[in-house]
Amino acid sequence: MVKRYRSWEREEPAREWEALNVLAAYAPGLAPAPLRAALDATPPSVTMSRLPGSPLRGERTTEEQVAALADALVRLREAVPAGVVSSLRPAAWNPAGAVAKARVSVSRLPSGPWDDPVVRKAYAHGAAWLAGADPDELLADPLPPVLGQADGNRANYLWDAHERRIRLLDWEDSGRSDRAFELGDLLEHVSRLDGDLDAARLLDLIALTRRERARVLGFRRLIAFTWFLMLGPGGPFAARNPAGTRERQAVRVLELLGRPGT
C-alpha cells in the first residue's frame, strides 16, 4: 500500500516512516511493515504492507476486542526500549499543544448562541476547569515517555477476526509521547460517538496505578472539552456532524467533570 501525503508541514511522512521502522524492529506485526519511502518527493510517500481487519470505529466493541486492544497498547508501551523512545521527536499532538489549543478555542468562541441549557452548563464548567490549575499540572509527566500515535481516532485500530488481535494504523503524527495523554485521546476522540467502548474495562486491563488513572481522567476531560469547543458555534467541526452531536458531547463533558445531570 502506498500512502501519499497531502500535507507534510508537521513532518508527517518522516514521522510515519520512523515509527513503522521502530515497530518493525521491536513489535513486529503490531503495525504495517515499512517497505519503501520517498520522503523528498512531491508529494512524499511511504509504502507499507496492507493489514487485514476492520476498524473499531462505528462498532460496539466486545469483551474480546477490548482485551485485544489492551494487549496491543501494553505491547506498544513495553516493547520499544526507553532509549529508542527518548531519541524520537516529540509527537505532533501532545499535552502542551492540547492545553494551548483548548485555551485559544475558549478565547475565540463566542459566548452564544448556546441555545441548549446542557450545552451552556458544559461550556461554563469546562471553561472554569480549563482556567484552573489542573490542566497545567498534567504537563509534568512523572513516567517515562512512550511511542504514541498522537491520534485517537478509532478508525486507526483494526480488529483482525482471524488472528483475534488488534493492529494500529496511522503514525503520521507519532513520536515521543505521554501514555496518559495517549489513553485520554483514544477514549475521548470524537470518533467514540460512532460506537461504544468500555473505557473502564480497558483501563482495568491495562492495570494503571491510581496516579496514572487520575492523569488519564484529566486528559479525558481536556480532550472531551476540546472536541466540545470544536463542535460549538464557529468551530471547525460544527457543520460536519449530525444534529445533536454537540449536545451529546456536552453530556460527556459534564460526566467527566463529575456533574452528571446538571
Automatic annotation (TrEMBL):
Q: What SUPFAM superfamilies does the record point to? A: Protein kinase-like (PK-like) (SSF56112)
Query: Does the entry feature the keyword Transmembrane, yes or no?
Result: yes
The identity of this protein, by name, is: Aminoglycoside phosphotransferase family protein
Quick check: keyword Lipoprotein in the entry?
Answer: no
Domain Aminoglycoside phosphotransferase stretches: 5-205
Pfam families given in the database record: APH
Molecular functions (GO terms): transferase activity
What residue ranges are annotated as transmembrane? Answer: 219-239
The record's listing under InterPro entries reads: Aminoglycoside_PTrfase, Kinase-like_dom_sf
What keywords tag this UniProt record?
A: Membrane, Transferase, Transmembrane, Transmembrane helix
Q: Where does the source fall among the domains of life?
A: Bacteria
